[in-house]
Amino acid sequence: VQLVESGGGLVQPGDSLRLSCAASGFPFNVFAMKWLRQAPGKGLEWVSGIDGGGTLTNYADSVKGRLTISRDNAKNEVYLHMSSLKPEDTAMYFCVRSNTPNGVVGTAAPVRGQGTQVIVSS
């Protein structure tokens, strides 16, 4: 089982970014996927989740309206489209596989990637 994130980088406030997560080693469309983040000196924060079929999504209030989660089950990939980025979005972003088809909320991370760094700074 492996999750590999990509797409992070240094951007300016107001910019957009798309994070990707490539999954392998398990039946991808069976499990919900989530994005968590960890800012410097802080704990893990749940950002967003999507169910196995891609029809149910949920977002933390802090990112609602600015970030969009999606998945392509044919490619075994999940994405986080980020727009109107703010300095407080600066964090390491982790792709996480849930243990259920509908577990889209929370910081539980039974399977987690290595993370991709996002820095929002002028």
Radius of gyration: 13 Å
Instruction: Give the helix proportion (percent range).
Output: under 10%
Secondary-structure-based class equals: mainly beta
Give the beta-strand count: 11
* Quaternary form: single chain
Helices, by number, come to 0
Note the run of SSEs as H and E.
EEEEEEEEEEE
Instruction: Output mean pLDDT.
Output: 96
- Report the principal-axis shape: globular
Cα-to-Cα separation, first versus last residue: 37 Å
Beta-strand portion reads over 45%
Low-confidence stretches: none
Q: Major β-sheet, in short?
A: 7 strands, mixed
Description:
The chain has strands at about 1-5, 10, 15-25, 35-40, 45-50, 55-60, 65-70, 75-80, 90-95, 110, 115-120. The model has no long low-confidence stretch (mean pLDDT about 95). The strands form 2 sheets. Strands 2, 4, 5, 6, 9, 10 and 11 form a 7-stranded mixed β-sheet that branches. Strands 1-3-8-7 form a 4-stranded antiparallel β-sheet, with no helix packed on it. It has no helices and 11 strands. With about 120 residues, it is mainly beta. A hairpin with a 5-residue loop joins strand 4 and strand 5 (about 45-50). The protein starts with a strand and ends with a strand.
